[in-house]
Please model this.
Amino acid sequence: MFVRDTSVSIKGSASSLCNNLTVLSSREKESVTYGVVHKAFVCITNVTKGSAVNQKQVSCKGEGAHSSSAVLQAKWCELPERKILVITSVKGAQMFETDGSIMIFWQALGESKEGVYSHFARGICAAGEKYICVGTSEGAIMVFDIPPRGTAVKLQETLTAHKVAICELESQGSRMASTDEEGNIILWQSGGHFTEIIKIEGKGFPCSSVCLLKDFIIGGFGTGHIRVFGASTGSLLIEACAHARWINAMDICTEARLLVSASEDSFVRVWKLSTEDKPTMEMVFQQSISDVQLCGAKFVDLSGDTFGVTGYDLSEIVMFTKQ
Model:
């Protein structure tokens, strides 16, 4: 169904982090921009049709003019009136203009709780018409109100339903799903204030990646399982032993109803989803990238014809296109 295409080089190599690939496509400019975390930097590669590839690195600054913070995640958040690059680190969350040239906001983390050995921000998504949400190691989710322009970003509220570190956030329209290191999944409704719709209890293993499709929540877990839950009831509808090791990334193309998953077992797999009365999930493609722990996967366009994957210590994005 897919064949391997020409890889995209990056200025650095991918760190061993979950969901370590973000993509921003522009139909008007006929360009695709890729972001991959490498230590304290985000490696940005812009590929424009008919022109050369442009590369740069964006650093996430720590305390002090010359210090840098270890980056945990980067993601372009697309709101109706604005697109923002959000970077999370051990110091907090920073927001930049799309090309990373200008920082428009910095939210530092407060003092960690007693006995907490690791303090960081992780989990990013745009939600609703004007919100960007960022998770933390203490299980909190910070909700930021984003203006159409300028730097007047404000912290609207902090959601505290999770009790352990956030793994990932994902949204679809006005709904947002959050996951944590115990495998719990919470579905939220955005608005003036975020309200909890339903909570799906975990089994003690991290839910490292999550996707939303219509009335379904799809979770990828550290055990290698992909589980599909009903968004209205929280009931388990599908459970697949999808990978032999930790699932590090998933992405969904809602138009084509395709799900891509990448794992530490070196396999990238594509699944076809049916959203009829009784949902089904069928594997339609798989490829092993030898001796590489895969850590990121993203569809490039809405059609689902192209996707890319990253791997630990790999200085390229491996691309696949539909035959």
User: Anything to note?
Assistant: The mean pLDDT is 93. The chain has no helices and 29 strands. The first strand starts at residue 2 and ends at 4.
